[in-house]
Write a structure and sequence with these properties.
Blueprint (H helix, E strand, L loop, with lengths): L4 H25 L4 E2 L9 E7 L21 E8 L5 E4 L11 E4 L4 H34 L3
Antiparallel strand pairs: 1-5, 2-3, 4-5
Helix pairs in contact: 1-2
């Protein structure tokens, strides 16, 4: 249990948001990767998030009645999607097969930009919670002073 639970909980959100931003940055950086059709192309990443109380081995029991509002979240894994990428007709590409196709990472830029905006807004909201909680705790310390 933390001395300042609201700061700890928002801090877990900041950590998840940073992981989300990292995955999004990796996806955008690799969106134009191309390989021969018979090779493995970059697989876009997506993070898996779970409440800390539901993570096996966490110190918090899911049946805990204390702090019923939660203990925060954690990135518990990374999954990939579009594992095979997409075939693109590009006969001039040196990686193209006899039919003129190359395999390209199946990254959807519009989706990734949406993820970027959402992760950034969530990051800012969690930092705002931390700052407001810090101000409230500082005000409480001034009582009676």
């Amino acid at each position: 249990m933390s001395l300042f639970p609201s700061i700890s909980i928002a801090g877990t959100g900041v950590n998840v948001d940073q992981t989300w931003l990292d995955a999004t940055a990796s996806n955008v950086a690799n969106m134009n990767d191309q390989v021969s059709p018979n090779q493995q192309v970059y697989q876009p990443q997506e993070i898996v998030v779970a409440p800390i109380s539901e993570i096996p081995g966490s110190l918090v029991s899911p049946n805990t009645t204390d702090y019923a509002l939660g203990q925060g979240v954690a990135a518990v894994g990374v999954t990939t999607y579009s594992k095979n990428g997409i075939l693109v007709y590009d006969p001039q590409n040196p990686l193209a097969n006899a039919q003129g196709y190359v395999r390209q990472a199946g990254v959807n830029l519009a989706e990734e930009l949406g993820n970027l905006v959402t992760a950034q807004a969530s990051y800012q909201a969690n930092v705002s919670v931390i700052n407001h909680a810090k101000a409230a705790y500082m005000s409480a310390l001034q009582i009676g002073a």
